[in-house]
Amino acid sequence: MIQDFSQFKNVVKVHGSPTPAADRFGNSNGALNFNGSSDYLELPHIKHYTGNSILVSAWVYPKGFGFYDNGIKPMQEYSGIFNKWDHINRKGISTYATHKQIRTNGQFANQAFYDCGCVPGTFLVTNKWQHIAYHICDGKIKCYLNGNVVVDKDFNNKSGLLSVTAPIEIGRTQWHPSNARMISYFTGSIDDVKIYYNCCDIKVLDLFQAQP
User: Looking at the whole model, is its pTM more than 0.90?
Assistant: First the structure.
């Protein structure tokens, strides 16, 4: 059973047929395996979100990376992880992995766009559990891989994040409502997804070191 353990107890909508998988501790049925073509989870918008800050943390076990095809030629290998994107107006927040780096992008409340990618040598590898996180607070963005900061950018933007009412998607990213080429699904297992709002005081290293 897929559950939201937050105070909101949201109903998780399952798309496709993700299957139970062993988690990073070897516990059977402790994680979910996504097929890379149709599997993802959907949670409703949290109305209490004010857009001040966000932290997304997850354990991922990539088995491969899909392709994002812009209709002209295949681009980098993309594997969608987290998405909160208004497909109609093309605004919001998303994070995804490639064979080269972890990226997150989106918009601040004043419409300024940010695109944050990890430095070379900090990419995900296949067939191994890895912890990823990104933390956006007061116009500063940090990306983490296995508890280490791999990107630390100051966008000097105090407007806060753009708050969109789009649902949260786990296991895919989508940037356009009708263009299937612009959908990227995750291939592999995902576990222990945590999403925090108004969270400037939370330390990612504690999430990385947490035990069951």
Answer: no
